[in-house]
Amino acid sequence: MWRGLVQCVALVLALGGGAAPLAMAQGNAGQDAAPQGTFVKTVYGIFEMPGHTARASEFGKALPPVGYVSFCGRGEDECKFTGGKAENLVLTTENWDQVQQVNRYVNTKIRPATDMELYHVPDYWTYPKDAGDCEDYVLLKKRYLVGMGFNPDELLITVVLDENHEGHAVLTLLTNRGDYVLDNRRAEILRWDETGYTFLKRQSQAAANQWVSLQKSAPQVLVSTKAK
User: Fold this and answer.
1) Number of domains comprising the chain
2) Which residue in 17, 35, 66, 88 is deepest, having the highest Cβ count within 10 Å?
3) Would 151 be classed as within a structural domain?
4) Which pLDDT tens digit goes with each residue over 75-126?
């Protein structure tokens, strides 16, 4: 079954990708250019321009979402990874296209539905087959990307407050150009500080079942019972 899922995504990848968050112009040295208006490249390296926060700050340990704890209690492989060197993904045209296509494919493939509608409980995390809510989209995107060779410690399940101050789950991609967010509510992959969300907590790069706070004092929230 898993092999079939990967093959299905591979077919989608062949259809073409979206624009990357960086200009992929090749210089004489064959290096990718920095994101326009965000970083400046010099002979001494790439430096962040003032007024931008490429990466979310971490503020110690946090409790994982209750739904994630139950999900892990079922023995899912997602919960078993332990981090390596905690390095960020080096973005290229090829791997960005893969991320774009997986995000678009899952957003299109899965029909929005609440856990109450599907499982008759307020919060149930699982890999969706044809319908699910926000955390189900996240789990499936991460499974596809890891199956395609991405490191799981570059793909962190993240809990946020949306524009209505309700709990929501997204997938954070840690890259050398900043933290980018795969979201079932929008097709575009935005940098975390461009989403309008309040970032509460996410998985640690050290291990899947360890979580870190993205707020100095983060409230405990239930991931939204809304489908989308």
Assistant:
1) 1
2) 35
3) yes
4) 998 898 877 667 899 999 999 999 999 999 999 999 999 999 999 999 999 9
